[in-house]
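$ ./design --mode recover --in tokens.txt
reading tokens...
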């Protein structure tokens, strides 16, 4: 019986997070209330408070879950291998998938509400972007080493530009409901990093 109750609690918490995530991605953190979530799920606000003491705790849980899924996706991209440009294309596709579902990046939406968020949420949003910047910096450095990418500045600066560019492309494409607009912006952004010179064969560096 106890295990069943724990399973029910976990399921309810997951459903709460699912609804709240969609609401944030569509309306922003300040655009929904506990009453909205409770109404959609057909539960009481008291039940919401049982799982998440307040909206700040709910927001923190949302970021942690979203960041965890994003980290898993980046790990899968690494696991598939390929050159840096292939990895960057896969990274941009993560954003395209969000827009395809008529949503926005959760942390991008939260960044718009940044000044009104509780400090733990602000720190978590920054942490999400920092983690993405670290991953992108590593991929960009790989591209420089293999000769497939040319950077006008540091890999870290380019990583920041990619994140900002993709988040901005989502925002601009959203009112048009136009995937092609986002994809064109993402392609132009990443093509600007592509080297005009052919990549040096991997075996050449160790042949001396």
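writing sequence...
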């Amino acid at each position: 019986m106890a295990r069943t109750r724990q399973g029910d609690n976990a399921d309810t918490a997951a459903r709460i997070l699912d609804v709240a995530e969609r609401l944030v991605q569509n309306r922003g953190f300040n655009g929904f209330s506990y009453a909205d979530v409770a109404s959609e799920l057909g539960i009481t606000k008291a039940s919401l408070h049982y799982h998440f003491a307040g909206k700040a705790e709910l927001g923190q849980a949302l970021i942690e879950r979203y960041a965890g899924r994003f980290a898993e996706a980046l790990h899968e991209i690494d696991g598939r291998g390929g050159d840096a440009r292939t990895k960057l294309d896969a990274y941009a596709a993560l954003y395209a998938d969000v827009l395809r579902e008529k949503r926005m990046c959760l942390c991008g939406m939260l960044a718009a509400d940044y000044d009104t968020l509780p400090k733990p949420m602000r720190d978590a949003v920054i942490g999400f972007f920092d983690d993405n910047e670290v991953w992108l910096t590593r991929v960009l450095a790989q591209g420089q080493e293999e000769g497939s990418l040319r950077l006008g500045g540091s890999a870290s600066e380019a990583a920041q530009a990619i994140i900002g560019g993709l988040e901005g492309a989502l925002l601009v494409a959203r009112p048009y409901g136009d995937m092609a607009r986002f994809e064109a912006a993402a392609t132009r952004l990443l093509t600007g990093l592509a080297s005009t010179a052919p990549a040096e064969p991997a075996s050449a560096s160790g042949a001396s």
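exit 0
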